[in-house]
Amino acid sequence: MQPSALYHHLELLVAVDLVREEGSRSSNGKAEALYATPSRRMRLRRALEHPHHAPTMRKIVATLGRRAERDFARGIEAECARAGSQDRNLGFFRLVNRMDRQRLGRLNALLDEVAELMWEEPQEDGELVTLTWVMAPLE
Fold this sequence. Notes:
- By secondary structure, the protein is an alpha+beta fold.
- It has helices at residues 3-15, 45-48, 54-77, 101-119, and strands at residues 20-27, 30-36.
- A two-stranded antiparallel ribbon has the order 1-2.
- The mean pLDDT is 88.
C-alpha cells in the first residue's frame, strides 16, 4: 500500500474510533505514531450472520489468506521453527469432512477455546505465533 493510502485508511479508522493514537516513538531520528484498537478483541462473528456483509467478509478472508502465507513463509525460515513436537510452532492443514450437528458443535467449542487462548494477554517471555483459520460449508 502506498503511504498516502495507508494514512487515508488510518484516518478513517481513527474517525470511527476503531483505532486510537496511543503515543509516539522515535525511529532513526523520525517520529512514529503508535496506534492501538480500543478493544483487544475484535470479532466479526455477528457480521457473518447478515448476507449483505458477504462481499466485505470475502475481502477480509482473502486478506487473511495472503497474510497467513507471508507469516508462514517467514516462519518456515526462522531458526526457532519447530514442526515435529508437542511444542510445535509451525504447521498447516486443510481438512474436509462431513460433520453431524454433534461433531460440528464440538469442533466449534474447540475453536472457541483456541480463540480464547490466543486472545489472552500475552506473556512477556512467551513465543509470538500466529494462527489463521477459515471454516466454510461445501455443497
